[in-house]
Amino acid sequence: MEDLILELKKEIIEVLNLEEITPEDIDSNAPLFGEGLGLDSIDALELIVLLEKNYGIKLENAAQGKEIFKSVSVMAEYIKNNRKK
Amino acid sequence: MAIYIQSISQISIQEPLCDNWFESPIYHRQRYVSSIEPNYKQYINPMSSRRMGRILKRAVTTSLNVLQGRKGNEIDAIITATGLGCIENTEKFLYSMLENNETLLTPTYFIQSTHNTISSQIALELKCNNYNSTYVHRGISFESALFDAFLQFKLNKITNALVGAHDEMTKDMFTLYDKIGYWKKGDICVETLRKSETLGSFSGEVAVSSFLSNEKNEDSICSLAGMNILHKPTKEKLEETLKRLLEENNLTLSDIDAVLVGHSGDKENDEVYSKTKENLFNDIPFVWYKHLFGESFSMSGLGFYIGATCLKKNIIPKHLVFDSPKEILNPKHILIYNHFQNSEHSFILLSKC
């Protein structure tokens, strides 16, 4: 699980082009949106594409994103249980 | 109503955000030269800049740079000129479409790939909801944007404006334009560009922002005394337009200290300037800048910056003087004469204030 969390942090940094942020700077349990990393709705779309492209997970319902993107830990847990690649 | 250039700033293939090129220009030898990037973090929050491509970072930075320390009212108009717009993001978006078989498209490159993204991104950074426009007219883009501001000043619709010229060049676009003869073959040197017998120039990039105002103060660099854009003018029409422009400013041709031209080393392009010199300007020295900055669709925006900088510094350095290697002291009036493919011609008259 720790490996997946680290991989996910690296991918988030890359796709969102989070300059000057390292995986160590991201608290696995901190909120991704609003507080914490302070991501916005465009970032949410980027994360939806990331899930599909890298893990084969297609979110059918946009409302699911609200739950799945709560934190890196929650995202990693969801990926572990639903990944198709 | 008079129009004054209050401040003007550039990011180009010379040292950025400064006038170091004036004393110590960099002479590039490559055909494809990218801008020298400044430290953007001094101007843009990394969380904002992370989505911006190179052209957006440059446009926002030069805009914030010219507005630094400014007091007074909000910006009445943001007007941008660009030939290719955010072409790098457009390419990234299209490549992503190809690679992913038109699926899994990410939004960022798409929403930041249009030409008017530049002007709107500047407005977002400045929180400016006023007039916002973008001119995409290849080699006459900058003149069109400036003319919009010029007319609005004259109609008393605006009291100030942020006018910019922004173009980036990607490797793919460079290759495409190379195929239609835009660039010279082999290394570049100034003497080759000065008296060229071949087509093409070398590729540069441009980001220029200028802040114009109807109020003269201690910061005013020079005035934008007048301007004209002409479509396929005859020799007579060009002469008549210039005469009228000078008369409107109580000047004669002998008052013009220098004519700043877009001589680029492209034989066909430069022949137009040579002919106009014979027909109109005679002994008035020609000044050039593309040997230092390269060629780009909105490069005449840099000509505007260079003319203003020469008036600010009271000298035209000898490395800019085309005809003879002699500096021009205390210039009072500089006429910028530009043409694009001998189709669109323009005059911009800058006067010391």
Structure write-up:
The complex is a heterodimer of chains A (85) and B (353). Chain A has 85 residues and is mostly helical. Chain A contains 4 helices and no strands. Chain A has one domain: Non-ribosomal Peptide Synthetase Peptidyl Carrier Protein, Chain A, CATH 1.10.1200.10. Helices cover 55% and strands 0% of the residues of chain A. The two termini of chain A are 16 Å apart. Chain B has 353 residues and is an alpha/beta fold. Chain B folds into 2 domains: 210 residues, Thiolase/Chalcone synthase (Peroxisomal Thiolase, Chain A, domain 1), CATH 3.40.47; 128 residues, Thiolase/Chalcone synthase (Peroxisomal Thiolase, Chain A, domain 1, 3-Layer(aba) Sandwich), CATH 3.40.47. Helix content of chain B is 35%, strand content 20%. In chain B, the strands form 2 sheets. Chain B has a 10-stranded mixed β-sheet with strand order 3-2-4-5-1-6-12-11-7-8, with helices on both faces. At the A-B interface, helix 2 of A face helix 2 and helix 5 of B.
Strand and helix map with partners:
The complex is a heterodimer of chains A (85) and B (353).
Chain A: H1 2-15, H2 41-55, H3 62-68, H4 72-82
Chain B: E1 4-11, H1 20-23, H2 46-49, H3 54-67, E2 77-81, H4 87-99, H5 107-111, H6 117-126, E3 131-135, H7 141-154, E4 160-167, H8 171-179, H9 190-194, E5 206-213, E6 222-231, H10 235-248, E7 258-261, H11 267-281, E8 286-288, H12 290-293, H13 300-313, E9 315-316, E10 328-329, E11 333-340, E12 344-351
Parallel strand pairs in B: 2-3, 2-4, 7-8, 7-11
Antiparallel strand pairs in B: 1-5, 1-6, 4-5, 6-12, 9-10, 11-12
Helix pairs in contact in B: 3-6
